[in-house]
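BUG: 3D viewer hangs when loading the predicted structure for this chain

Environment: internal workstation, default settings.
Expected: structure renders.
Actual: progress bar stalls at 90%.

Input used:
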Amino acid sequence: MNIKTTLSAFAVSALTAVSVAAETLTFAAGEWAPYIGSELPENGLHTQRVREVMKSAGYDIELEYMPWKRSFEMTKKGDYVATFSWSRTEERVDEFFYPEVPVDGQTDVIFYSRTKYPDGLNVTSIDDIQAQGLSVIGYSGYWYEAEYQKRGMDMRTVTSPESAWKMLQSGRADILIENRVVGELSLKEVLGDDAGDIGEAAEVRSAPVYVLFSRQHPDGEALRDAWDAHAK
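Structure tokens produced before the viewer hung:
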């Protein structure tokens, strides 16, 4: 092979390498062990799933971690093309492109203070919580915040699992709705041997969670379609 042929082959090889190189996208996310987290193996179970699907579509995914409310709002504005993992609500459908295929299915349960209610609580819905006049705490941006607002209920916002579980344990609040797996894990991490001070009343919601693609980002709709094409 002469030098001219060798150089031509090298140029073709280089162009091919460039053409197949995956584009890197940055998604906004919050910390939500064991599903999403900067210190988790593979950055969490949901992150692993999202990376696998988008990799098959030709994209590498990086995460920028921030408070959940901020990740939601900045993606909504188009500063980020996507954020995960979020449930489906009527309000969000108008603000984001929802894919057909979810990331995962999730179950949310009602946690309550056994310290304050040693005989348990008979609550199975937000309507029950309201009817019994129970005080609620929660995280800003979660689906239940809109449900509380619709009913004119006050929700005291917490920013960390430590605050949430200790408020329940002390009896300063009655109810926290949380993902069952996330709740049971963080409860043990925060309260340790005192985790038994918190009880589970009932399952309140079972629903899929999704990657939300921004309607304000120029690539939002195309990436939503890419997700659906490769996630099935």
